[in-house]
Amino acid sequence: MKIGFIGLGKMGLGIAGHLLAGGHELHVWNRSAPPARELGERGARVARTPVELADAEFIMTMLANDEAVRAVLLDQGLLEAARPGCIHINLATVSIALTRELAQLHAQRRIGYVAAPVFGRPDVAAAGKLNVVAAAERQTLERARAALEAVGQKVWLVGEQPEKASAVKIAGNFMIAAAIETMGEAVALTRSHGVGADEFLQVMTNTLFAAPVYKGYGSMISEQRYEPAGFPAPLALKDIRLALAAADERNVPLPFASVLRDGLLEIIATGGAHKDWSALAALAARRGGLDGH
Amino acid sequence: MKIGFIGLGKMGLGIAGHLLAGGHELHVWNRSAPPARELGERGARVARTPVELADAEFIMTMLANDEAVRAVLLDQGLLEAARPGCIHINLATVSIALTRELAQLHAQRRIGYVAAPVFGRPDVAAAGKLNVVAAAERQTLERARAALEAVGQKVWLVGEQPEKASAVKIAGNFMIAAAIETMGEAVALTRSHGVGADEFLQVMTNTLFAAPVYKGYGSMISEQRYEPAGFPAPLALKDIRLALAAADERNVPLPFASVLRDGLLEIIATGGAHKDWSALAALAARRGGLDGH
Amino acid sequence: MKIGFIGLGKMGLGIAGHLLAGGHELHVWNRSAPPARELGERGARVARTPVELADAEFIMTMLANDEAVRAVLLDQGLLEAARPGCIHINLATVSIALTRELAQLHAQRRIGYVAAPVFGRPDVAAAGKLNVVAAAERQTLERARAALEAVGQKVWLVGEQPEKASAVKIAGNFMIAAAIETMGEAVALTRSHGVGADEFLQVMTNTLFAAPVYKGYGSMISEQRYEPAGFPAPLALKDIRLALAAADERNVPLPFASVLRDGLLEIIATGGAHKDWSALAALAARRGGLDGH
Amino acid sequence: MKIGFIGLGKMGLGIAGHLLAGGHELHVWNRSAPPARELGERGARVARTPVELADAEFIMTMLANDEAVRAVLLDQGLLEAARPGCIHINLATVSIALTRELAQLHAQRRIGYVAAPVFGRPDVAAAGKLNVVAAAERQTLERARAALEAVGQKVWLVGEQPEKASAVKIAGNFMIAAAIETMGEAVALTRSHGVGADEFLQVMTNTLFAAPVYKGYGSMISEQRYEPAGFPAPLALKDIRLALAAADERNVPLPFASVLRDGLLEIIATGGAHKDWSALAALAARRGGLDGH
Q1: What is the tens place of the pLDDT at every residue in C177-211?
Q2: How many other CB atoms sit within 10 Å of the CB of residue B191?
């Protein structure tokens, strides 16, 4: 299966590497050259422009945000150049508004569009263990199935409108941020009464909260290990904004999301833009005067 | 081991039944007679007053709130009557202030005090699968160990000051309420974009959030099954108030807890006092106009 | 002074009428014909397209939102047609981002741009009693001074960058919304203890809070008079969004604004889109179960 | 009129001095001697114990909090010693629960009880310009009228149940705190876009918000003058807690009050317990990274 792959940040690199290892023919492009060269050495063909990938059967993109998607697809002409019948699989978290717009633009040009955002960190991506949440018109989805399954360990189909996959992914990221804030506040509370973060979180993450999100972020919080960032605060803020915008469009209040937004803004405003989003827990402690001030 | 057991609400009944089944000599008292009679038929000795239990080796209490504990221990004279050397194991969630006060009163009378709140619902209690969080002075804890292990599947020791166990339990209940609110908001968001609650929660609770709390409350939310209440909103409000009071005492802000408090107050104020605390999710949907208004 | 005036909603009509009464030569255009006809009967010249106003000395616009401004100025070509040297006075509340963009576009075409949002309701506008907050490059401002003074009772100059006037106006509207919510919560609290809204607000608005905002909205809250709307909830939501966006751009958290956003969303989601923003007080009462549910 | 006056903190001293200047016979007691001595030099009779004031026609108290009121009235026996027919006028802000309890205890002993909390700062008190909010059983109120009028410039009667006056005062203090937070957030927003605090607040406090609260606290915010504290953060936190408790008792959510509570806790937790409650504005700026971090 010939796949054009665009966007070789940490996540994109992990996924593309896994696809290469699976024996797929991979043509890659990235705004900066080094990651593309790295994949080239592992067997990928390196394109000089996005448009060179226009004749692939599948075009996968893993771009940072709405603006980057617009730049590559629209401004640099990839969508216009793509051959009818090919399928664009967008693996990134983008806004619901853009998803809806892209679905329409692709349909007009008879190009399939699959919204397929993924859950998992770069190491999970490289190991092929991502969870892929996919939504697309039925026939497109059937044709894209094998490609989607090549990306991760499980594909969750959530409907025919691509925006549904975006909604699920956006709501999922909100849930992770809320779990972090929840642990942060709970740890601030127990620490203020003399119970260590690890002591408390061991109880919780081995019983009622024995889930990957709580175990993973729980250990970062216990160790106050917020750097280097796996997922930096500004990206998390972007996702919380997407959640608020998606809810706003339907007049749905999200009080927890507003608290998260304010917390992430404060982290960034006070010098923590390089920190992981789990630094929300550091903020909860600081507000309570627990780590000096 | 001779155990005096006071407080046969749903939770108390489950625990006491499990102890009986384990072959322990159980003397029980309850404010209303029927649950005591039920246990009597299963082999427990039924006392007419709390004071009759004063000569037990262990006195376990599972009372609804601070007031009920005061009533039995102080007003009805159990603490005064208890023989020096016996150990009081308090299985309920009470305030940190009361825990501190009780620890002192027990010490003055040379009676051991173990704060040992439990995580789990009545059916879990009856099956002996509770998680017990315990804190007490070291020697007391050693002597109480077997009794604690008879109560649940695992005992988590969190220190020598009883209030530490209270802090852990209070923070844990806050975490559960926050998980419910989080799912409620996330489901309101995805539903507003056409993704069903079950469809969304299946993805989340089988991947990053594959934990008992999310699976259990997630299915209640999917099915909009908020009655009959496993844990009614007013009890949840009591626990969130305990969290806010515990944090307040140490000047620790808890923004999520404040949102939860407001939500539970609204549920109760608008006719939902009989509903389970998972009705926080119904409130999130109602605020977004999703289920009529 | 020849003035082109665009946008004859309630506010625009009030201002334009006052200018006419002041003897100014007024050329008007509005998307829908009736308000323009009404002014025509009072002496204004009615234009058929915005571009017909392109040769006025001053072009004043009072349009509903960013989109309407873009439509008239850019899509319908008014900016392109305007004669160099004329001055555009934007009386409406628009986003900071658009203000910045317009300032640049006008400068490129050598047209003056004054951001001059106003505080006051339609009746205040008609009486010439508005407060005008203005910012523009110094020379432009000097030339526009008389025109600005013709609009209201006082002109507040807040700097040379037009966005500063937008920031002041946006922050001011946030303050009004916060004052309404504050009264709403305070009244819910006192009512729940048997003190009538009017009884309470009489004390406050005649002493520490003896200000127009509190007196005006206070009487609406006392009388539960939320319809017909002077300023409907969706417009208020638009302004709170502008505040959040302006703050977001600079990483400034606004916790009160987030509460207001959630409240306005809920009002709109639950059938109150036609109500005045002071219905935030009705929501506060409803949440506390005070007016049935 | 013979008045016993207890509690000579800044506010009490101001009021007592004004009563003395008005020619009333004043017997005073205070926990610490110096303020009592000061008044003694101005003509007051200084008592050695509260009970010495028991035969006064009116006993006025201005004590710091619920605990201080209990200490003087109950523990030190003033209530028991007071002669039937005398009237106790409580000028301080105390909880609704205590107000209700005191009303009952006084009634049992045939002593009149007037809840008469006041609005105004010490200098206002000394000038006799306070606003007095009073509630008491009708006959008591009639008899107390002259004494109340001697205290301030205006007496606002709000009903027969003393707790109504407490509710009004508590809700009023919440409104002041909310006004401070509102200005703090608005100023953070405008400052982040280059508009100075003073420049912005001049516009607002001379137009829509031309009220004493906004002018007074507005100038403190403009000048970042949070010390010495007129009303320190811990006292403000006490009052916000009273508001939350009063609302909680009736199941009324107060989202703004929760934000204020969290902010005041943070100020205190991070070294600002000595600052004025207007330091909420400094916190809003700090969260947005405006004053270093």
Answers
A1: 999 999 999 999 999 999 999 999 999 999 999 99
A2: 22
Segment C273-288 mean pLDDT: 98
User: What does the DSSP 8-state code read for residue B52?
Assistant: G
Q: Which residues of D touch C221 (CB under 8 A)?
A: none
Chains that touch B (3 or more CB pairs under 8 A): A, C, D
pLDDT exceeds cutoff 80 at B293: no
Taking the CA atoms of A19, A22, A26 and A29 in sequence, report the sign of the dihedral they define: positive
Contact A269/D262, CB-based, under 8 Å? no
Q: Cα-flanking dihedrals φ and ψ of residue B59, to 5°?
A: -115, 120
Contact flag C185-D214 (C-beta cutoff 8 Å): no
Å between D288 CA and nearest CA of chain A: 5
Catalytic residues of C: 169
pTM for the predicted model, two decimal places: 0.96
* pLDDT tens digits, one per residue of B150-176: 999 999 999 999 999 999 999 999 999
Interchain contact C266–B (C-beta under 8 A) = yes
SS3 assignment for chain C: CEEEEECCCHHHHHHHHHHHHCCCEEEEECCCHHHHHHHHHCCCEECCCHHHHCCCCEEEECCCCHHHHHHHHHHCCHHHHCCCCCEEEECCCCCHHHHHHHHHHHHHCCCEEEECCEECCHHHHHCCCCEEEEECCHHHHHHHHHHHHHHCCEEEECCCCHHHHHHHHHHHHHHHHHHHHHHHHHHHHHHCCCCCHHHHHHHHHCCCCCCHHHHHHHHHHHCCCCCCCCCEHHHHHHHHHHHHHHHHCCCCCCHHHHHHHHHHHHHHHCCCCCCEHHHHHHHHHHHCCECEC
CA A102/CA B173 separation, integer angstroms: 43
CB of A211 within 8 Å of a chain C CB? The answer is no
Rounded to whole angstroms, what are the CA distances from C40 to C17, C25, D157? 10, 12, 54
Q: Kindly tell me if the per-residue pLDDT of C292 is higher than 80.
A: no
Per the CB < 8 A criterion, the answer to whether C43 and C66 are in contact is: no
| Candidates D271, D287, D288; nearest CB to A293 | D271
Subunits that touch chain A (at least 3 Cβ pairs < 8 angstroms)?
B, C, D
| Cβ atoms of residues C199 and C206 within 8 Å | no
Q: Over 80: is that where the pLDDT of A85 sits? A: yes
Q: Percent of chain D, pLDDT > 70?
A: 99
Which amino acids of A are annotated catalytic? 169
Report how far residue C52's alpha carbon sits from residue A258's, in angstroms, rounded to the nearest whole number: 46
End-to-end CA distance of chain C: 56
Are A252 and C259 in contact (CB < 8 Å)? no
In angstroms, rounded to a whole number, what is the distance separating the alpha carbons of residues D261 and B257? 12
Q: Which of C268, C271, C289 sits opposite B270 (nearest CB)?
A: C289
Q: What is the pLDDT of residues D186-215, one digit of tens each?
A: 999 999 999 999 999 999 999 999 999 999
Furthest CA-CA distance within chain A:
64
What's the pLDDT at A292? 65
Looking at residue A73, the DSSP 8-state letter turns out to be I
On whether any CB of chain B is under 8 Å from the CB of A157, the answer is no
Strand partners, A29: A6
CB distance D268–B251 less than 8 Å? yes
> So what's the ipTM on this one?
0.96
Q: Which subunits count as partners of chain D given 3+ CB pairs below 8 Å?
A: A, B, C
Tell me if residue B2 is catalytic.
no
Considering CB atoms only, which of C269, C286, C289 is closest to B288?
C269
Residues from chain B contacting residue C262 (CB–CB below 8 Å): 287
Q: How confident is the model at residue B291 (pLDDT cuts 50, 70, 90)?
A: confident
In 3D space, the residue among B137, B61, B113, B50 whose CA is nearest the CA of residue B92 turns out to be B61
Cα Rg of chain A, angstroms: 20
Residue C68 corresponds to which tokens in the numbers above? 């309407």
Q: Quote the tokens at residue D287.
A: 């969260």
